[in-house]
Each structure stands twice: as structure tokens, then as C-alpha cells.
Amino acid sequence: MRRSKAFIPTTKEAPSDAQLASHIFLSRAGFVTQVASGLYNYLPLAKRVIRKIENIINEEMAKVGAQEVELSFVTPADLWAESGRIEKFGKELLRFKDRKNNLFVLGPTHEEMMVDLVRNRVTSYKNLPLNLYQIKTKFRDEARPRFGLMRGREFIMKDAYSFHASNEDLDREFDAMEAAYKKILTRLGLDFRVVEADSGAIGGSGSKELMVIADSGEDTIAVCSKCEYGANIEAAKRSARGNIPEAPEAEFNKFLTPNIKTIDELAEFFKVDAYYTVKCVAKRVVYADESEIVLFFVRGCDNLQEAKAHNATDALDIVDVTEEELAELGLVPGFIGPLDQDKAKHVIDSDLKNAAHMICGANEVDNHFVGVDMSVLSETAYFADIAEVNEGDICPDCDGVLTFTKGIEVGHIFKLGTTYSEALNAKFLDENGKAQPFIMGTYGMGVSRLVAAVVEQHHDDNGCIWTKETAPYIVNIMISNIKDEAQVALGESLYAQLQDANVDVMIDDRKERFGFKMKDAELIGFPYTVIIGKELVNGEVQIFDRKSTEKTAVKSDMIFTKVMELL
Ligand code: ATP
Ligand code: MG
Description:
Layout: H1 21-28, E1 32-36, E2 39-42, H2 44-63, E3 67-68, E4 74-76, H3 77-83, H4 85-88, E5 95-97, E6 103-106, H5 111-118, E7 130-139, E8 154-164, H6 167-187, E9 192-196, E10 207-213, E11 219-224, E12 230-232, E13 253-256, H7 263-270, E14 278-286, E15 291-299, H8 306-313, E16 317-320, H9 323-328, E17 345-349, E18 358-361, E19 367-372, E20 383-384, E21 402-417, H10 419-423, E22 427-429, E23 435-437, E24 439-446, H11 447-457, E25 459-460, E26 463-464, E27 475-479, H12 485-500, E28 505-508, H13 514-524, E29 528-532, E30 540-545, E31 551-555, H14 559-566
Parallel strand pairs: 3-7, 15-17, 17-20, 27-28, 27-29
Antiparallel strand pairs: 1-2, 4-6, 5-6, 7-8, 8-24, 9-10, 10-21, 11-12, 11-21, 13-19, 14-15, 14-16, 18-19, 21-24, 22-23, 25-26, 29-30, 30-31
Helix pairs in contact: 1-11, 2-6, 2-11
């Protein structure tokens, strides 16, 4: 491509709301333009990167025997009613009616559509397993679209769905897909980690996320210092605590604690470790057509993990409550405890089951109980894992220590089981001629998010640094002075040679200052720029390596060979 003809509208200014490097550089370097909140146009450079990612995905999917399809983006709302997800997905699901008053949604994910495609078409175990995938625009009316391509409303997802006759076969496919996804990310040149994940609204049992490691990532992941264990903080587990602080000795008693409302104040007042205090987090839990106040109890040294709280209550949403709302139920903020279960629903962290020597609110102004033995609650109370793991907690799989790092979720794979096939009545005949629901897996990968993730991991202050497999053009030929015939001649012949060798090459043939053109090349992030400049009179040109920013002198008659060696 000739830079003089290319549609690459670079700018000095980044969008005013852009904070992330990927958002700033993809906008400034002319890869994307924003249309409205969470909606982007992909310009030629972005299209080329996307195509490269898609090619790698297609190659790896072919190797595991998955077949590409493309399903309608506009999907009948009836299917979503059949699966029951029309409510669960809430406002993210964009609904609309056609001229005949039929209700449709823009597909945010395609489980229902895939099950509908396969039901009554695949009818025998002999045709299983089957793995179908597509690379397709998705729409989710995200509450807070942000960070450019990272969290759009319209975005590109690669989504695969597998159908099996047995759980063993699903397990095999799940492992094969995990391996394929790892291969894809490795080929893209990304540093990533596969972690255990929360299954969220899609449901199912086993679920793993593929996280690209980046400080700007929205997800916190807990990783073990010793073993392979890694988990999204939403799903992370820990071993029982080892170095338990010394327990306060006290008989069960009510104690006057004037104005002592926070855990810090409480621990200080009684001179105990917060481990022996009970923290109450009151929330309003929203269901399909009602809501209620729920009191979540965790140890004072822990925090409530919202995703776990969602799962424990089957909530559609969890929102904050005011002190007035609590007062209406007769609850006293700062002094709420788990012993009186009549005023609101309780969910108590499993770590508090049978906990002794505890201090908790007495549900009375300025009063706490001491010497509480939580085992008195075991019969009646609802216990669930709702506490967030803390950095320094012990790994659930070994005696290593958990540390936190940030990640960008670029893929999510699930063992769905029969959730959707049962809901949509999709069955096959097994070896004994008995009708059975398909056992399913689902595997998503964020293609447009990957474009941003590559830049998050590979950039510097001057712009993008594309990896070899993702670069829109791998070589940029810079003719320093377009009026110098010798420079032009060499540039053009190298351009022709590289094109013949099927190298993705750009030639910067613009009548601009050298400095301006180099800045532009750095912003776009071509891995290599061949600089044909003044030294050509001495038979020398340079190769600029975008990653190391080093320039290497090369004999001009060796340049083609040298470039081919680099690739
Ligand atoms: P997130 O937690 O980031 O909202 P999700 O868990 O809702 O994502 P999935 O339903 O697992 O997403 O979708 C599969 C993949 O699609 C994700 O792993 C992610 O890479 C991508 N993806 C999801 N939502 C978006 C979005 N709004 N913009 C870009 N990519 C997205
Ligand atoms: Mg996910």
C-alpha cells in the first residue's frame, strides 16, 4: 500500500475520554473512529489487524475440527424466552419490534441460536460430537461502555458451541479448545494466563477465562506463587487460614460499645484482630420482578465479593441501600449482627460456620455481642462462599501464597452441560435409542477486544508496537526525500520485491518532512521501517526496529535479503 493513497487519518489529539494506551493510540493512529458511545468504525488498518487475528483463529479451529458458520445477528426474542435468559440478560439485551410487531433482540451471544440450529437437525449420537463457531458482531447495551474497543457495545466475538453425547466427551473437547485458545494467544504474541472463572449469567459448571496480563486490565486475578493455580477474584478460593490470631477470651455477653460502628473501631475498642469480628454488608438484591434487602456477613478482615453474592442469591442485580431503608426494617446500621434472623434474609460466609469467640452487632444501638459461637446458627442459617480472597491468603491447591495481578479477559470457555438443550428441548437418540439432551460447551473469544489487548501489552510513549502476527503492515519503506531519484528508485524496487514475496508492506511516498513521517510510523507501529536516506550515496540504508527503537545500518544492495531474514 502507498501511504500517499492510504486512508489512515492520524491525529495529534486523543479522544477526550481516552485513558488507556490502546484507546488513545488506536484512535490517534487512525485505526478506529468513534460513532457513538461504545460504537466504532474500523478503518483499513484495524480491518487488517482483525483479519489477521481471524485467520489465526480459523487455522487453529480447523485443527480441532470446529466448523465455521454464520448465524443471523437479529435473533427472535422467543428463543430467549425459551431459555429464560430474556430476563437474566436485562438491559444489555437490545430489543426491538419489526413492522409485523414481532419482538427481536440483537445477539449478545448465540447459545439459543446454536441450539435452535442443531435441534431436530442432528438427531443421533452417531453425528456427535459437533463443534460450530462463528466470528460475528455482537451487541450488548453495556451500562458503561468504555476504553475504546475494550468494552464496546457493538464488538466482534468469536463464539464456538460444542455438542456431545457424554460428559467425558465434553471434557475432552473443553481441554482441546483450551489448548487451541492458548495457541491462538501465543501466536498473537500475548502474555496471558488461564484462570478459573465465575460462570455468571450463562450458567454451567466448569468455566475458565483467558486473561491477557496488563496493568490496565479490568479484572483482578489471584495467582499462586508456587503452583499453576489462578482464578478471577470473582471465583477465587483459598485454603483455611493457617496463622490464626490469638482468640479473645470472653463469655457470651452483650457489651456497651458507644458509637463504635466500623470494623476498625470495633477491633481497636476490644483490642482484637478483625478476624474475630463479623462484618455486615447490607444490599438490595434485585430479582426478576421483586427485590429485597439481604444482609451479607463476612469476617471483619474480609470483604464481600459481589459476583459470589450474585451467585449465592441468584440476583439479577445487587444495589446499595440507604440507612433509611435499613431503619424501616428495624435494623441499626453499625450494629447489625447475624443472631437475629427475622428482619431480613441473611447470607453468611462459609468461613464463619462454626467460628467461635466472635464479636458482632447486637441489633441494638451502641451494643455488640462478644463471645459469640456461630455454630448456634448452623441449623437455620444459609452459608455460602461470599468472601473475597485477600492477597497473602493461602492457595486452595497447595501451600503457596496468593498474589493479585490485573488481566484483560479475552476469552471465556464454559462447560454448559444440558442447561440450554433441556430448556430448548434439543435432543438426540443415544446408542440405546433413548432421547437425551445434548451436553454442551461454549467458547467465546473477544476479537475486537484482542486488538486493544495487543496494544495494551505492546506500546510505548510514541504509539503501538504490533507483533509480527498482528501487524497491519510488517514493513514500512520510508523514502526520506521524495525528490531524490535514487532514494525513490530503491524504495520502489524494494516495495515491488517485498510485494512479490507476499510481505505486507507499506511505502511512505509522501512529500512530508522526514521527522513527521517517522513520528507517524512510530505511532502506527510497523514492526520494521526501512529508512532510505542521505546515506544511500554511500550505499547504506537503515532498518528501524520499532520494539527496540534501534537503527541498524545495512548495505543497500543487501536490504531485501536482510528484511526477509528478519521476517
Ligand atoms: P466482561 O466480563 O468483560 O463483561 P463477559 O464475561 O460478559 O465479559 P463473555 O460473555 O464471556 O463476556 O463473552 C466472551 C468474550 O467476549 C469475553 O471474554 C470478551 O473477550 C468479549 N467481550 C465481552 N463483552 C465485550 C464488550 N463489551 N466489548 C468487547 N469485547 C467483549
Ligand atoms: Mg466472561
